[in-house]
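Feature request, filed as a ticket because there's no other form

It would be nice if the structure record came with a short human-readable summary line next to the tokens. Right now we just get the raw output. Example of a typical job, pasted below so the devs can see what we mean:
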Amino acid sequence: MEFICNQQYIHYSKSGFIYYFYVINKKIYMKTFHDNKIYETIKIAENIVDYSVTIDDFGNFHLISICSSGELKYSIYKDNKWDFRLLTQYDSKYYQFKNLKIFIVHEHIHILIAVSNILDSKLWILKHYYWNTQSWINKKVCTIITEKYDIPFHVDIDSNHNIHIVFKSLSNKKYQIYYCRYQATYNSWSIPTRISDPAYNHFHPFVFCDNIKGTHIVWSRYYHKNMEIFYLCLSKLNTSKSYLEQVQKLSNEKTNCTHPYILQVGNYIKVLWKQNNEYFFKTSNIFDNIWNPSTKVQFDPKYKLYTFSVIGNHYKSLVDVKIRNTYGMHINNNFFIIGIDHSDTIDKQTTNPLCTCNPLYSNDKENIDTVHLYNQINLLIDMVQDIQKKYENIDQVLNNLNDHQKLVEMKVDKLIKYDEILATADHNLFEKITHFFKS
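Raw output as currently delivered:
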């Protein structure tokens, strides 16, 4: 079975640690950094064909992987160890796999994978494995006819837990872009809809869901011996018009543009693409859908670009980002994403040759124990800070109760004085006061 995965994942934790997932020689590693130093490197699994990583609301990593023998395994990283579970077993003699993806929604788990019979490597079946907190459900989403080395589909999930998929598939001898959606409320998939112009060939689709329930799709179209980048925002469609009438072209005329990605930083989305041997991006505010002119990315070409996914919504000092896939570099234990990190920042921190990212699998128990101890200290610090905040809230409540008690005591004193006055007053005055309060 041919190995095809080159995806890398990074996560910036609140405690200051950076977790880096990558594959070398079909082995998955998790490397931990702190203050630009390697604290730990763990080998997670071997003989891997593809994998995907995400994180849940409690900070636990979830990993789905499929190995050369056809075993589809789900695992969770908790209490500094990986717990593995076998989901299903494919016959690796007859099947091949691509683009394994995992999403965690509270206690629900979504896993997607493209499966193909080796006798017909262009025909792929997109499968959806779903854990509903009680049992696993296996569904066929659609059939895709694509080229042998293509990524069969791209996927993202929105804030309402709906899953959005785009894929390239052959139709009437031309490759078209299709879109379909999983509706979480009804646990059902829509029928794939073509969104591209049937007169042309289309390639490299990508879908992205922003944090205000917008769904964005980009792809490249072959036209007059050049590739052009096109964009469609599904959340801002005019229902009286067709998809084709609302598609925007982002690239310039007579340019060769491929492999676009979308990412979000704050209220802005960026579309990045490769143009010949260079990289460009365009930026738009998600509220007005107005695109700025394209910008060329400046960086030293001697550094190799990788495909990165950022797990979570933190990237360095940025706290409101979403990066499903993008181009980036790993240099001297630092990560750089083109279009976000400025070229001068990269230059200042790249005085040494590019890091080759060797596994450096460590058996040094003392070093590992130090890392675990440091992790526990950071967790304790977070717990102490939470306790301190709760104590401050309790103290404020007690102060409020104390003030309220003093107020009640003052009112009781006044009532006692009123009672003494009434006791010594004549009967007619008491009747007048009583009548006053009743009126």
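Something like this underneath would help us a lot:
The two ends are 93 Å apart (CA to CA).
The CA atoms of residues 36 and 298 lie 24 Å apart.
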